[in-house]
Structure formats: structure tokens, C-alpha cells
Protein 1
Amino acid sequence: MKYDFDTVIDRRGSFCFKYDGLKEVYGREDLIPLWIADMDFQVAPQIKAAMQKRLDHGIFGYNQRLPIYYETVINWAKKRYGYEPQEDWIMTSPGIMPAVNLAVMQLTEPGDSVLIQTPVYQPFFSAVTAHNRKLVTNSLIPENGHYEIDFEDFEKKLKEVKLFILCSPHNPVGRRWTDEELFRMGTLCRQYNVPIISDEIHGDLVYNGAGSRSIAALEGMLDNLIVCFSPAKSFNLAGLATAIIIAKNPALREPLDTMLENLHLYMGNTFGIIALTAAYRESEDWLEELICYLQGNRDFLVDYIQTELPQLKVNTPEATYLAWIDFSNLGLTDDEVQKLLIEKAGLVLEPGIKYGIEGSGFQRLNFGCPRKTLSLALERMKKAIKEL
């Protein structure tokens, strides 16, 4: 490989929540952290060089997005996701979750219902309930080694909601929804006049050559859709607080745009702008190597669990660097599994119960790390379970 993903880099003391937050959250600093969804790899050298050049300039005033920025975003969406947004459809947010929260606030009223598909990324829950909206869930169905959509229930729930928050690819279950699934969801949402906000932050990280795919690329979807993407996951830039929001329909775009301006969230982070531009214009070869390395980690993890930890079950993720592992055969409660992993294995994973009641018995593991780290973590897990 041209790029190095094997070197273990000490992140402690870098104001890094994944490592520096261990003491505050778990009371220990000696744990292997496989919880927070960022990666333990240095960013692409092209990104580092662009940021260093901007740093050397030495002046960090208010930002203006130049035409090259919009050109970069448009070209990336066209090449990687299959659709071509226009410049006036593009908004910028400090993250996808701020945009999701604003969509809930601006496109629904207190007391309205909002639909999510559980188990799902836990901030989706608070994005609904914190604004006095009613949470409605469409539980995903574990079947044939992965999760599928209960479309009968999905359509039933659409009759009572005002907004649908889609996670695509899905965190934590690792599904890359097929075109057929996306089109069916989108068509039903149009039928019942329910706008979609699609969180596609993991959209670049798709395995087995399947390629990225946005619901925005499918015929007839754009008029009922807000789509969100970011280099945060795919280029490991979460700390730079930069996300792209695309909305073709003015009825969906203008309420968000107004609130982004009113809250002064539109100007963005200087280094986020620079990093996004360098990532999407200069670093695609780094991304392709990363995907290959992560797929190797995924396959190593799945094979290890199947051969060395048969008490556990894991679906093979089609996308993301997150594994959804079923510990239920151990006969332990969620708290007992968490205690086992922390106290006996020295590991921190994300408890599945955070993602909804459907996540009980599961843990989410982040394999976006050097293989040496992943191997050590799995060996510790095996030893702890063997001693039960």
C-alpha cells in the first residue's frame, strides 16, 4: 500500500474524546477504546499539506466559500453518489446532527411525529424528543444474516408522521441499502407526503466494490429530500465540524438555510473548508486504500469471531467501520456484558441498548484502527469470555 494504516499512533493528550474521555466516562485510562466512531489513522498527507499551507498563512478571519469549494462538492456528489446538485442547493452545517435537529425544528411542529428505523444512531432519538416531537420507530428485521426493512410497518407508520430520518448506510447494523429498498422507501414517503432527511455520513465507506449510492440519485427523489454528507468519517475529519446539506426543493431548503444563518452556523470552520476541499479534490486514492484496509479489518474480525468466539454472532457489515456483535448467547444482561468487557477484557465498545430496545444483547465495535489494535482487542475479548 502507498499509505500507512498499520502504525499505532498514541492519541492520548490530543484533546481526543475517544481516548482522553476514558477517565471521565469509565474511570480508567488503560482501556482499548473501540467505542467512539472516529478512526485511529492519520489523515491523507494531501489534507495535512493543505492545512499546513493555510496555517502558515497565519490569518484566520471570517470565511468565504470560493467557487472551487462548490465545484468540489458538486463533482464529488456526481462522481461518488450518482447525482449532480446545483450550487444553490448546497448549505453547510457544523455537522450532520445539527442539520437533522434543525430539520426537525423547522419542518415539523411540537407534538408532530417523526420516524426513525431502529436500532439506530442514538442522537436520532434526542433530535426528535428534545424538541417535543413524538418518536415513532420502524424496527429493522434481522434476517438472512443482515437486517431488512419491515415495509408493511414502515408504510403504516408513514400515515402518522411528518418527517422520516433515514440512516444510509446504516449505523450500527452496517447495511448499504439497495437501490430497490431506497426507491421503495422514497416512493412511499412521497405517497404520504413525508419529507426525508438522509444522513449519509458513512456513504463513502462501502465494501466489496458495491460503490457508494445516495437516495438522491434515484428518479423522483430530490423534491422530497434533504441529503447530508461529510468527509468526517471517510477522511477522519470529525473534529473539523464540516458537513454538506443538499436540498433541491425550496420549501425544504429555505427553512433550514434561514435557521443556519440566524444561528450563524453557515460560515464554517476555516480548516474544515480547507480539509474538505483537499479531501475531495486530491485524496481519493487515499480513500480507496482506506476502504481496502477497512475491508481487511472487517473480514479479519468476522472470521475471528466465527472461529474463535462462536458464542457470539456478527453480521458482515456492507458499509461503515462498525461491527454489530450479538452477545446474547452468553446469557448476561447488557450491564453484565459491559462490565465483562471493561473489567475483564479492558475494552470499551458501545452498548447496543443505546440504539434502541432492539439493540439489547448487542455491542457496537469500531474497527477503524490498525489491525494490531483490533487483534489485541479480540484476543482480550476471547480470554475474558473463556474465563466466564
Protein 2
Amino acid sequence: MTTLFAAIILLGVVIFIHELGHYLAARSIGVKVERFSVGYPPRLITLTSIKDGWEFRLFFYKKNSEGKLEWGPVKTININSPGRKGTNTEYCFAVVPFGGYVKVAGIIDESMDAKLEYKSYELMSKPKWQQIWFMSAGVIMNTILAFFIFMGLYNYTGRPVSSNEPIINEVISDTPAFNAGFKSGDKITSIEGSLISTWNDLTNEVSQRPNQEIALVYLREGKLNDIKLITSFQINPETGDTLGMMGVRPSIKYQAISILESIQMSSIATARGFGLVILSIKMISSGQASVKDLGGPIMIAQLAGETAKAGMIPFFSLMALISCNLAFLNILPIPGLDGGHIFITIIEGIIRRPLSIKMRMAIQQVGMVLLLMLMVTVIINDVGRLFNN
């Protein structure tokens, strides 16, 4: 149950903030919001803004005129608020809790609603810069969310400062060091004959030897020991270089930081979050990683559960990284995503006329097929990992 609740919270918050960005942007430029849904259909509870009040509806199974069960409203309550204009916006809590969506007037989206009348409250009637503002607002909000999560974590923990002594504080499971039997407290004294005096010496010697056998001397309980191990590798997210690793960490202390320092550190952490996504794409395109390594909602749920059990800091760190992932992927110029809508809007601005509804529908359908193929791929990968484990 921990995994399920952690996944609901993580994905719910990240996607809700994304859609909230679209909602606020639509309201700011006078575009009619038809529905703001937390979760995906079918609807469970709706609250609709109407003239002189609100309309509350509860949905569940009920018998229709033919005696068959169907999903529909089973309870309707009108809440009076005399003088209220009402926007006809439906605020919805849906059954599937992972995410949500915003539907506005005058845009061809996943619903394939091609009804465009170019009225003043429709998105397509607005200037191009306002359309782009609406389409990019979700990405902006996800970036802001990641930044403030990192900022909160840094203000809570402080600046991490690693000890420079070559003494192992933590051995990571299923790594070369773990398999070789290293323990917390072991002190590395030499690698490949080179004297190790600091932790920097250790990382420098190991990082330049990815996937290689290395000879180490370490001190344990006053006794020197010799050992050989084969390093593994990791990719530097900033440079893309392949670095050797053995799977150990030094002791870390935390120092209090100022607001300005937390802003700087949070900006760097957010940029690195985007850098990790770019690096993943580069690795797949260059063959360093496989499409089979891609993960979907099941993998995210598993990670959410694991980090939730590990503590608040790992869980919120994962939430920030997922927010960066969602922001980056949504800005890609793929039909059906925010970036695809922005790309079409820019093309229309260049040719100085709107694309036909038929053309927009065709582009949207291609995008939906591509996204469906991606979703099927990651779900197959997720299921495969479940059975392999």
C-alpha cells in the first residue's frame, strides 16, 4: 500500500501542478476553461460554476431506462450564491487518481473535439504569444515546482559537505565494492600502486578506469589488506563522459546555508534534472542505453514506494526529478504534447494563417499514435521487469 499511496501522491502532485499552470494561464488571457479535472475519467465528483451558485454532482453506477447499469450522476445538489456570474467551468475529481487534465474552449487536443468557432473566449482567437503562453504554462509550473522542492530540501538539510578522508562510510548494494566485501570504516590506502591520501585521490583513480580490474590496498582494524575488483561505470550528467565507479560513499556533514545560496544550489539542481533527461536521450540515440531501459508508470510507482520508505528527502528529490522529466518531455515538438501545439502555433505565425481543422486533426492523430506506441513500450518494459524480479 505504501507504493500505491506514494505513487498517487507523487504523480498526482506533479501532474496537478502541470495542469494548474494551464488553468491559470487560460484564466489570465480570458480563455474559457470547460473542465479542470484531478484524475482521469470516469468522473466521480464534479462542482460546476453556474449562474447564481454552484452545481454539485456525485457519479456512480445506476440503472438506465433499459434496466442496465451505467455510470452517471446519482446525486445533484445546487448551492445558491445569488449574484454570482458563473463561468460554467466544471471542477472534477475523477476515479483514476494518477494525474489530471484541463480542457479549454477552442483547441484541438486529446479529446479530438474539432468544434472551433473563433469566439473571443476561445484559445485560437487569441494572439499567438498568448496561445504559446497557455501551452507552455504547464512546463513552466513543473520547472518552478522542481526548483522550490530542491530549495526546500536544501534549506532543510543545508549544504552537503563530504569528508575528504579516504574512509568508506557507506557501501552501495550490488556494486563492485559491495561484492568485494568492503565495509563501512575501511580506509583505502592505494589504488594500482598510487598512494591514496584523500577522497579526491580515490575518486580520481577510480573514475579514469571504467570497467577495468584494479588492485587496491585498504586498512581494516589496523591491518592492511590487498584486493582486486572490476569497476563498473556511470555517466557524468554534465559532460556525458563514462566514469569508473566502485560503489562507495564518504561521510557527509551538512552546513547551514543562506537564502541566496539555496537559490543558487536549487537552480543548479533543477538544471541538472533537465540534464539527466537530455543525457538519457543521448545514451539511447547513441546506443549506450536501450529502449528497453525506458520506464513507465509502474517503474515510477516502484521508485516512489522505495524512496517513500527511505524517507522524506529521497521521496521529494524523486518528485523534483519527475517534474523535470515531465516538463522536458512535454516541451518536445511532438504532436499531442505542449511542444507540439507550440510548434504548430509558430508555423501558423510564420505562414500568417491558421492550419485547417482537418490538418490539425491529422497532426493530432499522428501524435496520439506515437504517444500510444511509447506508452505501450514502457508498459511492456515495466511488466517485463516485474516478472524478471
